[in-house]
Amino acid sequence: MKIIGVDLGGTFTKIGLVDSNTGKIIKKKEIETMVELGGDAVVKRISEGINELVGSETYEAVGIGSPGSIDIENGIVRFSPNFPDWIDFPLGPKLSNLLNKKVYVENDANSFALGEKWFGAGKGKKHIIVLTLGTGVGGGIISHDILITGANGIGAELGHVIINPKGRLCGCGNYGCLEAYASATAIIKMAYEGRKKFPDSIIFKNDKVTAKAVFDAAKSNDRLGLIIRDEVVEALAVAIASFIHTFNPEVVIIGGGISKAGEFLFKPLKSRVNELVMPSFKNSFEIIQSPLVENASILGAASIVLQRRKTT
Amino acid sequence: MKIIGVDLGGTFTKIGLVDSNTGKIIKKKEIETMVELGGDAVVKRISEGINELVGSETYEAVGIGSPGSIDIENGIVRFSPNFPDWIDFPLGPKLSNLLNKKVYVENDANSFALGEKWFGAGKGKKHIIVLTLGTGVGGGIISHDILITGANGIGAELGHVIINPKGRLCGCGNYGCLEAYASATAIIKMAYEGRKKFPDSIIFKNDKVTAKAVFDAAKSNDRLGLIIRDEVVEALAVAIASFIHTFNPEVVIIGGGISKAGEFLFKPLKSRVNELVMPSFKNSFEIIQSPLVENASILGAASIVLQRRKTT
After folding, report:
1. Which pLDDT tens digit goes with each residue over B90-118?
2. Do the Cβ atoms of A151 and B127 come within 8 Å?
3. Residue B250 to residues A47, B111, B244, B287, Cα–Cα distance (Å)
4. pLDDT at B312 (0 to 100)
5. Which letter does DSSP use for residue B152 in this model?
6. What are the sequence ranges of the domains in chain B?
7. Domain A2-115+295-311 in CATH: superfamily?
8. Could you say which residues of chain B have pLDDT below 50?
9. Which family is this sequence assigned to (chains A, B) (predicted)?
10. In this structure, which topology does domain B124-290 adopt according to CATH?
11. How far is B244 from chain A (nearest CA, A)?
12. Average pLDDT score over chain B
């Protein structure tokens, strides 16, 4: 079966034609979202983008991963920080009308979780936690083979689990959220905070302070880089140990830009999580770097279609 | 329909005959568990206890809430801190043989969650978090109408979610678990720790330092009592805010001995949780003191039967 996966972003939107049997992206393209043109124009641009991409091929249905709070039954974006004008915007029905195909909408972090379940490191598994470490920290939970989104579909905000109530200030206003430690935003902030004490850190030899620059510095044994790496690892380990005690998952999958630090992040993280979990949980889980890389968002969006078909 | 609910405890075992339509306990009794006699003798004592209680009445099936890790499909107690000799003990099948009735076994914290869903503050709801604040802190999660127990059935250890990694030492060996703050064990420990600074606290006027004595002291404006109450409230609030961000539940139900402190605990707790949750979660949940009181464990055990029938 061929499916369209759409990763709707605040600036760019990725569209891919996916073979659901192989998990391969047959072809893909990226368009500018152009939020400023308004919701209807965005939907029209997506529909044109899909038609151009597909050409003479056929496809079954469309899955869209969108930031924000989604009414998944009706395909409505209730609100989204990336699309401030979209209040109860019927994204799914509008696109479905233009394309004359079924369109399924899901929150983008949840769709990432589904992508891992259908095509990634969670294949064949029923208990999966995913974390995306990017500008913020996103979460997705699959437990007993169902996507855990809660009563209003706004759960799985794993970036806003509080790991240290007297800790760092988070963008959400609370102190000590996971996102206040393990997001690119937090890492860059920690670097600037460390500048007074470590003015010669190689982090600041770069044009721009980025999370990647911090991890690269740490890899070269830069003191500030290592301090920050250790703080990120500790925060993630505490949160993941709690998720393991809560969900008893088979796998914890970590994606997003920061996960590209690879073993330099994952090795100490695995070791610390193993220290923190209670004896009965030892060896009950794996911690894996997302294998889907830059295709994660398109595959995740496509997998929304597969998941919904399974449950309806 | 009439069901037997059995609350298997390390010292005493409660047995009740429950009318599943009204949620009323028709009659109940308590027997000594007598673990020291061995598993088979315990099962025989339970079966005799049930037969004596039931007399000439009829009943459909038996639900047992047991401490420890349970293989729910096969009714096997894999291991339990309360019954150290029971390794993979087939509690369900053995009792079923003696009674010639269906017997369903579930972990006691999970059965408490089911009891709230079928007979208590979670009636008609599909997204429920329960916490039992007793000697330890137990947890139960119902999300999307299913009991969340994880891949090996050992999840929902909400007492061992880490709320402060540099905080108080927990019995499990970690620092800063919820149980290290919100259990009777922790509260009594905090009282003794405070004795040097507050030797005249009325907590120590009692024969015995108990969690109840601490809350009673706090109610009389005793300084140490209030300090401890505030620490318990803060820990619970941080954990509950994280559970709300994770599960987006309709209701958080708190039971166990410590919950009997009532509004003196619940009022500041509700207010602090409301401060901590993100705007989109405001007014999405209630925090409720368990209404089932001392019948919670028998009703919980009986509700295992109802839940399993629903899903099979």
Report:
1. 999 999 999 999 999 999 889 999 999 99
2. yes
3. 37, 19, 9, 9
4. 55
5. T
6. 2-115+295-311, 124-290
7. ATPase, nucleotide binding domain (3.30.420.40)
8. none
9. Belongs to the ROK (NagC/XylR) family.
10. Nucleotidyltransferase; domain 5 (3.30.420)
11. 7
12. 94
